[in-house]
Amino acid sequence: MRQESRKRIVLGLTGGIAAYKAAELARLLMKQGVEVQVAMTEAACHFITPATMQALSGRPVLINQWDASSNGMAHINTSRAADAIVIAPATADFIAKLAHGLADDLLSTLCLARDCPLLVAPAMNRQMWANAATQRNIAQLERDGVTLLGPCSGAQACGEEGMGRMLEAEELARDILAFFQPKLLSGMKVLLTAGPTYEAIDAVRGITNRSSGKMGYAVAQAALELGAQVMLVSGPTALARPQGAQVVDVTSAAEMFDAVKQHVADADIFIGVAAVADYRATQPSGQKIKKSADKLTLELLPNLDILAYVANLPKPPFCVGFAAESENLREHAKAKRKAKKLPLLAANLAQQAIGADENELILFDDAGEHVLPRADKLTLARALMQHVIKLRNAKI
Ligand code: CTP
Which residue, 348, 82, 387, 349, is CA-closest to 222? Predict the structure, then answer.
C-alpha cells in the first residue's frame, strides 16, 4: 500500500548520453523512500534499456502512448498520481518541445497534461546549450514556472568542454529532495561552524584533528533545503561548498571565533558542529623547527570556547552543540549541555563519526534523549533540523 507521506515522481528520460546517470538517480531516489515511475522517449531507449530502468524502479517503464493497457490514458493517470515530473536528461529537442507545448509522444504529452511541478535537468553539447533558440526555450520554461536543475560545466561526451553537462545523480537527487522540503526556515539566518581547526606550531606543522567537515556541511545543506539563509564558517576541509550557502573559510580556532563574532548578531540559530582545537601553541615558530637530539617541549594555551561564548550572549540565537566523545557518551554529553547552557546537544561517538559517511546521533534536550538511528549524515542532519524547528517553535 502506498504511504501517503512518500513522494512519488515520474522520472522522464529523453535521448541523450547522460541517460546512464538516470539509472543511478532512480536508485538514489528509491533509497530515500521516493516512489519512481520511469517514462522514456523512444530516443532514450537507444541510450539505456527500459529493462534496466524497470529493474531499478520495480515498475514497468512507460514508453508508448498507444499502449492499450491504460486505455490510452497513461498521460493523465500517471501525471495525476505524481508529486512531480523530473526530466533527466532533458535534451535540447525535448526542452524545445516543452517550451512550445508540443505533445507528440507519451512523455511530452504527460508533461503537457500534468497538474504537478515539472523539474528539468538539461543535458547537451555546449554549442547547443549556448544556441539562441535553446536559451529562448529555457527562458520560456522559467517563465512557465518550470524548475531547472543545472546544467553545469565540464567535460562532454563529444570531447568538448563547457556548459551543458547534466548534474551528477547525487546532485540531482539532493536537489529533487530539497524541492520537496517545506520551507520552514524561510527568512531565518542559520550560522554554523564545521570541520576541524588547524593551530600552527611552526611554518609547516600544526595541531589539528580528523574531522572531515561532512556532518557540518550536511547540516548546512539541511538548513538550506528548509529555506534558511546559511552562513557556514568552515575550517580546512576538502568538501564541495553547499550550493547557496555563504562560506567563510578559516584555519585556526581564533579565526573561527572572529568570524562567528562578526556574524552572530543577526543569526536566529547557531549550530556548532566544528571540532575546534581546545589548545594552540603559545609561541608558534615562524620558521620550521629544526630537529635536534634534545627534548622538545611544546607549551599550549587553551582556546576560547566559541559555542559557550554564543550561548552566553545577552540575547543568544537558538544554540545547538555537538559532542564528540570516545567513552561515557551520555554522561559527558549531558554535562556538556548543562555547562554550555544549550537547549539542544547532539552527541556522537568520535571513533564512529569522524571522517565517516554514516553516523548515529543522540539528541539531548530538556525533555530527555532522542536517538537518531544510524544513517548517512544528510539524513541525520535533516532529522536534527526538524528537531531544532520543533524546539524553537515550542520556545517562541
Ligand atoms: N566548541 C566550540 N569552541 C571550542 C570547543 C568546542 O565552539 N573551543 C563546540 C563544538 O563545536 C561543539 C561543542 O563545543 O559543538 C563540544 O565540542 P567538543 O570538542 O565535543 O567538546 P569540548 O567542549 O571541546 O570538551 P572536551 O574536548 O573536553 O570533550
Answer: 387
Q: What is the DSSP letter of 275?
A: B
Task: Indicate the top mutation candidate among 258, 307, 332, 337 to test ligand 1's pocket, ranked by most ligand atoms within 8 A of CB.
Answer: 307
The cell numbers describing 28, all together, are: 538514489
- Contacts with 113 (C-beta within 8 Å, 6 or more apart), sequence order: 75, 76, 79, 103
The ligand 1 atom at the shortest distance from the C-alpha of residue 271 is: 15
Pairing state of beta strands 368-376 and 358-365?
Answer: antiparallel
Ligand 1: centre distance to CA 195 (Å): 12
Ligand 1 proximal residues by C-beta, below 6 Å = 193, 253, 272, 274-276, 278, 303, 305-307, 321-324, 336
Place domain 189-284+295-395 in its CATH homologous superfamily: CoaB-like (3.40.50.10300)
pLDDT, tens digit, for every residue of 89-134?
A: 999 999 999 999 999 999 999 999 999 999 999 999 999 999 999 9
8-180, CATH topology level: Rossmann fold (3.40.50)
What pLDDT does 158 receive? 80
Cα 305 to averaged position of ligand 1 atoms, centre (Å): 7
- Cα angle value 281/282/287 (rounded, 5°): 70
Three-state DSSP state, 71: coil
Residues involved in catalysis? 158
SS3 state of residue 317: coil
Query: Comparing 8-180 with 189-284+295-395, is the CATH topology the same?
Result: yes
Q: 268 and 191 in contact (C-beta within 8 Å)?
A: no
Identify the band that residue 1 occupies on the pLDDT scale cut at 50, 70 and 90: very low
pTM tops 0.70, yes or no:
yes
CA of 339, closest atom in ligand 1: 23
